[in-house]
Amino acid sequence: MSTIYEIPLLPGTPQIFPIALANITYNLRFDYEDVSASFTTVSGQFYLADGFSVAQYSQSLPKSDAGWIMDVSDDLGNPIVCGIPLITGADLLAQYAYLGIGGKMFVLMNGGIATVPGFNDLGVEGRLYFETL
Q1: Of all residues in the chain, what percent carry a pLDDT higher than 90?
Q2: d(C-alpha 21, C-alpha 23), whole Å
Q3: pTM of the entire structure?
Q4: Which bin fits 22, alpha (ψ -120 to 50), beta or left (φ > 0)?
Q5: pLDDT tens-digit series, residues 80-120
Q6: Taking Cα atoms as reference points, which of 39, 105, 38 lies closest to residue 68?
Q7: How far is the C-alpha of 5 from the C-alpha of 47, rounded, in Å?
Q8: Cα gap 8→116, rounded to integer Å
Q9: Domain boundaries, given as residue ranges, for the chain
Q10: What are phi and psi of 94, to 5 degrees?
């Protein structure tokens, strides 16, 4: 049987603290990364409908303004995984299952799955949860 715990976060401030997850103590670090450039260029190539012709493309797309990231380290501060973006509704640890952290971690926002936690939202409108396996 799994158990779900809310990870306590303070809005509007970077933070680091120790926490026991699945009976192992980790240090979680949360920081808000603000992107200074407002656009990024995406370029590449794709095949046309005939399956043989290749077309080139280049497009300028708006970057995300900013977002929260999480770092996980062991109880001694040694990094385990760094730079995990806090994406609403996704299991943040899914691609790191091989690390054996022993659960799922996800962000839920009051505004729904399409809402992104802003600087002052995390811990208030948006909450971080850990579910044991």
Answers
A1: 58
A2: 5
A3: 0.76
A4: left
A5: 999 999 989 899 999 999 999 999 999 999 977 778 888 89
A6: 105
A7: 47
A8: 18
A9: 4-36+66-132
A10: -55, -45
